[in-house]
Specification:
By secondary structure, the protein is of the alpha/beta class. Helix content is 37%, strand content 25%.
Amino acid sequence: MAEEEVILKAEGLTKEFRGFVAVKNVDLRVRRHTIHALIGPNGAGKTTCFNLLTHFLTPTAGQIHFKGRNITGSSPAAIARMGLARSFQISAVFPHLSVRENVRVALQRKLGNSFHFWRSERVLNQLDSRAMELVTAVGLAAFAEQQAVDLPYGRKRALEIATTLALDPEMMLLDEPMAGLGQEDIKRIAALIRTVARDRTVLMVEHNMSVVADLSDTITVLARGEVLAEGPYATVSKDPAVVEAYVGTGHG
C-alpha cells in the first residue's frame, strides 16, 4: 500500500493497565476515502484502541501518524483540529439546546471561539445557514427546533454525526454508531455513514456484522488486544481464527 494512500497509521500500538495488556502491538493502516471497521468479540480492545488513536488514552508504546505527521502525544483537541474527529458512543450533545443550536455550537468550536455563547446574535446567525445545511444532511430538518433531549435515540445518533461533521473532519471515528438502534434507524444511519464517507475517511467500531459487511471496505479483527486478521469482509469472515474467536467466546 502506497504511503500517500494511508491517512492514519498506527505502529506497535500497546496499552497496559497495571500489568494487564489491553492492546498489544497493533499495526493499523487506514486508506483515504474508505470505510474501515474495527471489530472483535467483547473485551477485544476495540474501544481502547479508539481511545489511543484519539489520545483520550496515552499509549504505553507505539506511534500514531495522521496525514504523514506523528501525532503521538498530541492532545485530543489538537488532533481534532488536525482533522481527525471522533463521535462518541455516549451522545455528546447539549440536551437542552435545539438540534440546530447543537450544530451551531459545534460550528463555533471549529472557528476556535468555543462556547462563546455571549457572542453577538448577528455573528451566531451567520452560522445558522451552515447549521441548517448539516441538520438537513443528516435527515433532521423536521426536528431542527426540537430540544436534543426530546429526540428519539436513533435521531440523537444522527445529531451526533452532524455535530462531528460540523468540525469538517477529513477523517471520522465512529464508536458503535448502531448501538441500541432499531432496524429502521440502523438503515438510516448506515445510509448516512455511506454518504459521509464519499469525501472523507471513516473508521468505526461496530458490533453489527451485517452493517460491517454492507459498509466496510476493510475490516481489522481484534481479539485479546491483538490483530487477528485484516482484509475485506468476504475473506475475514471465513478466516478460521476469526470464526474461532467469535464462537469460542460465545459472542456473535
